[in-house]
Amino acid sequence: MLAPLLPFKHLEHVAFILAIGPLAAVDATDHSISVLAEAWPNLRSLRLQRGRQSRIKAAGIPGVPPAVGTYPTIHALVILARHCPELSVLSLPRLSVSLPLPDEAEPVPLMNHPLESLTVQETVITWSGNRSLSGSLEFAMLLDRLFPRLLRYVILDGKEYIIQEVHNILEVIRRAREHDRLRGGF
């Protein structure tokens, strides 16, 4: 369904309302994000949102299978950071984060990407170890490695305390960076 739009290389602002399931025209997966990022390197804003019907399906209506494995991961954020150097606003319907990252996973690069606003409608964070502040710290550090200029971050999750920890850690990192800048940097 997106194929006719991919040749428009100079698109800067793109918004889609997504459906979930086998009839969806656009899925927000690592692969589909990669296709979009490579096709539209001039993006300044990318807003992918679930439509009302998709939210109903995602809530677990009987007879509607869950869309397992069809959501972007940290890898999608790395792809966007690498291929869309002017992206300043990003909105995703869902982000699946598994911490710690597997040893065989490609390391998250240290970037100076200009993304200023990140909104994720639903964040699913899973830990393969101790679900403590260390998981929140690792997630916050991953976001900061990619997007050190992040000013607005709305990351929603059913576990408010986890997202609050991530928010607080990102704020501390931002303030420490500003403090270092004021001192002349080291």
From TrEMBL:
It comes from the Eukaryota. This is F-box domain-containing protein. It comes from Trametes pubescens (White-rot fungus).
